[in-house]
Amino acid sequence: MLTSLQNPLVKQIKKLHQTKERRQQQLFLLEGTHLLEAAVTVDRPLAILCYTIAWQTKHSALCEQAHQLAARVELVSADVLRSLATTVEPDGVVAIVERTSTPEPTFSSLGLVLETIQDPGNLGTMIRTAAAAGAEGL
To answer: What Gene Ontology molecular-function terms does this entry list (predicted)?
Structure first.
């Protein structure tokens, strides 16, 4: 069980709190049971799976499934998990997943590509504007 906040793995995962590190390492953090369930549902390989004993007890079936997909599994203390997570009240599990590359769109004309939309309310406006401008792809 990992109990030290000075453990090299803990330090490596904490670096992923920064966007620059996530991009450089091509990794991202999955925090919480719901995101892990989604990853397991689509058989997404996990680079690292970290969880507490309390989480394992509550979610034994999901834990078993996640073990099958994880390259590395670590049982961690509640304090370590709190330091790994970016959420205020983590529910006991964090996973590290490799980013997959997104294929480049193959538009030969005008298209609209969106990433990390801050205000979803603007989405309709962007789509209508793209349609008015004659965009062929979204």
So the answer is: methyltransferase activity; RNA binding
